[in-house]
Specification:
Low-confidence stretches: 244-249
CATH class of the largest domain: Mainly Alpha
Structural class: mainly alpha
Number of domains: 2
Order of helices and strands: HHHHHHHHHHHHH
Shape: globular
Mean pLDDT: 86
Largest sheet: none
Strand content: under 5%
CATH architecture of the largest domain: Up-down Bundle
Helix content: over 70%
CATH topology of the largest domain: Four Helix Bundle (Hemerythrin (Met), subunit A)
Number of helices: 13
Number of strands: 0
């Protein structure tokens, strides 16, 4: 096979580039949700998982093609979770277990079910990892709320109101147990999501600012630079499509 000729042919197929970009964006979104431990957001995404999903052709055999894609998902999810703090041995071993199960699957329905189970398993572990250093139930609830409402304009007061807590009490408790203020934690979580979007997606600073509930693009850029030392575009130029592998080199 002439690889370059085949590449050119496939890229010329109607809708191929757009379809692949859409699929890529959806996958990245799944990985980020799982790595953040946001179980609520994951369950929403899983409602339509596997439906009308156009997969690249890795094998002429439909079952084998789905196995290949499921294996890729397992490998990538494990690496995103490692980036987010999961122990390497745990992430890789869990991936190996699911890849073995996928390899033994006898139907596409079974493969889809295994992928959903895998995503939930990693997400639960990341959720537990975040909470492992948190002592009080109120702080666990605050962290869960922040992750589930990361797209909103969050404040200490709005979180305290949602949890039926006194804002001063919550602020003091959070700083005492987490070592940083609740306001800074909110900011850091939003900037972490922004960094992931800048690394992996083509969204503009304005789109990211709107998605994360910032009052304006300029406010987002100001907060981002204060947190990372770079503007969003500077960060993107330095890190766009950088992987966990070349970031270690």
């Amino acid at each position: 096979m002439n690889i370059e000729k085949e590449l050119a042919k496939r890229l010329m197929d109607d809708g191929e580039t757009t379809a692949r970009q859409d699929a890529y964006n959806r996958e990245i979104n799944f990985y980020e949700i799982v790595a953040s431990g946001n179980t609520k957001a994951l369950e929403e995404k899983l409602k339509n998982f596997g439906q009308a999903q156009k997969l690249g052709k890795l094998s002429a055999n439909d079952l084998q093609n789905n196995k290949y894609h499921a294996t890729i998902l397992a490998a990538l999810v494990s690496r995103f979770c490692i980036e987010a703090g999961m122990e390497i041995s745990v992430a890789y071993t869990l991936s190996d277990i699911y890849i073995e199960l996928i390899d033994s699957a006898t139907s596409n329905t079974e493969i889809v079910s295994l992928q959903m189970e895998l995503l939930r398993h990693y997400c639960r572990k990341m959720n537990e990892l975040t909470k492992s250093n948190v002592v009080s139930r109120h702080n666990v609830m605050a962290i869960d709320y922040i992750r589930s409402h990361i797209q909103e304009s969050l404040t200490v007061e709005s979180i305290a109101d949602a949890l039926s807590l006194n804002s001063s009490y919550l602020s003091k408790l959070f700083k005492q147990e987490m070592g940083i203020t609740l306001s800074r934690y909110i900011r850091n979580q939003k900037i972490d999501v922004a960094c992931s979007m800048l690394r992996h997606l083509d969204e503009s600073s304005l789109s990211i600012a709107n998605y994360l509930g910032f009052s304006s693009q300029s406010h987002f850029i100001q907060v981002f630079k204060k947190t990372t030392g770079m503007t969003p575009e500077e960060y993107r130029r330095k890190n766009y499509h950088q992987t966990w592998m070349n970031s270690e080199s």
